[in-house]
Amino acid sequence: MKKVLVTGGSGLVGNAIKTVINGESSEDEWIFVASKDADLTDNNSTRALFDRIKPTHVVHLAAMVGGLFHNMNNNLDFLRKNMQINDNVLQTAYEHGCIKVISCLSTCIFPDKTSYPIDETMVHDGAPHPSNYGYSYAKRLIDVLNHAYHDKHGCLFTSIIPCNIFGPHDNYRPEVSHVIPGMINRMYQLIYEEKSLPDNEKVFVVYGSGKPLRQFIYSLDLAKLIMWVLDNYDSVDPLILSVDEENEVTIFEVAKAVAKAFDFKGKLICDTSKADGQYKKTASNKKLRSLLPNFKFSAFEDAIDASVKCSFPQLRSGRVCMDADFLCYWCNFMLGVMGILTKVS
Ligand code: GDP
């Protein structure tokens, strides 16, 4: 039986793993920790956490994360905090003899000037996009650390590289949010808080040109894949966990899907004075497909619809509450009934 410590356990992906585990009968013991349980930027606090939990396995999700605009303003913090967290977690996991550590990277860390599609061999091939170099270099160093721990001590520390993630329990705070929770929050405000205009005269602003391309993975799909990686993937080299290349969408298409989920009656316009960030970061999931050919990803519009419905209690109250949890379980149950959430075969 494994004893799995999940760092960053109260975030988007940690909550998705909880939801998946609750729907299955796992023999393993899972412990989810958040920043209130330990300060992972602090070595003593990290050691105290591992001494208390004594994990055999670690899913390392904890990180300073944020959308394009948060990264652009805080590269130094993204670099330092993430380097501190990763160094503490990996060294402490080594000292505790953990059998496996899976750390979460992101497709935004790949080189800015590159050929497409990007694959796992290209992580260190060139400078990342200038908007998020702090986060990117800190995350790239996890891959370097994983190899160094393997070379020196034979550790099985590995990494996954998801594309953009969205789902229930996202971070909706405008100053830090990624595009989907950012749009959900702003559309919620426009529809339910802006009373001065009739619904069909309201205008929703898409930041940037709307043209950048992104691959999006639903957090519950990612949770299932992480659980598969934990049991089945035994290489130190990173593994891209992304939807297929043909499922890449423009930011404007994302706005249309969010508008549809809200049944928004107004107009969508683009504000080109705002930054676009990377134009695209199209990633290949060929390696994942070769290992797990039959995995079915949730349909994008259905997953957006579930995410929008799940966000209401959180947005109404300004915090995560029991109602939000209940609603999320209900939404995911309905997705399951619709046959969208398919078990890993
Ligand atoms: P990225 O994928 O790492 O670049 O980060 P984001 O998810 O923050 O942004 C993706 C794209 O969405 C960028 O081109 C933004 O200009 C665009 N975008 C449109 N509306 C929003 C919004 O409300 N919030 C954010 N964060 N980005 C938005």
Write up this protein:
There is one protein chain. The protein is built from eleven helices and twelve strands. The strands form four sheets. Strands 2-1-3-4-5-10 form a six-stranded parallel sheet, sandwiched between helices. Strands 6-9 form a two-stranded parallel sheet. The protein has a two-stranded parallel sheet with strand order 7-12. With 345 residues, the chain is of the alpha/beta class. The radius of gyration is 20 Å and the shape is globular. α5 links the parallel β4 (100-104) and β5. The longest helix has 21 residues, at 75-95. Helix content is 44%, strand content 14%. It has helices at residues 12-22, 43-53, 68-73, 75-95, 133-153, 179-193, 219-232, 251-262, 286-291, 300-317, 322-337; strands at 3-7, 29-32, 57-60, 100-104, 157-162, 164-166, 203-207, 213-214, 216-218, 239-241, 249-250, 267-271. Residues 319-327 and 339-345 have low confidence and may be disordered. Guanosine-5'-diphosphate (GDP) binds next to α3, α6 and β7. Guanosine-5'-diphosphate binds at residues 67-69, 108, 164, 177-179, 182-183, 186, 206-208, 212, 214, 251, 274-278.
Write the layout of secondary structure elements.
Blueprint: E1 3-7, H1 12-22, E2 29-32, H2 43-53, E3 57-60, H3 68-73, H4 75-95, E4 100-104, H5 133-153, E5 157-162, E6 164-166, H6 179-193, E7 203-207, E8 213-214, E9 216-218, H7 219-232, E10 239-241, E11 249-250, H8 251-262, E12 267-271, H9 286-291, H10 300-317, H11 322-337
Parallel strand pairs: 1-2, 1-3, 3-4, 4-5, 5-10, 6-9, 7-12
Antiparallel strand pairs: 8-11
Helix pairs in contact: 1-7, 2-4, 4-5, 6-8, 8-10, 10-11
The structure holds guanosine-5'-diphosphate.
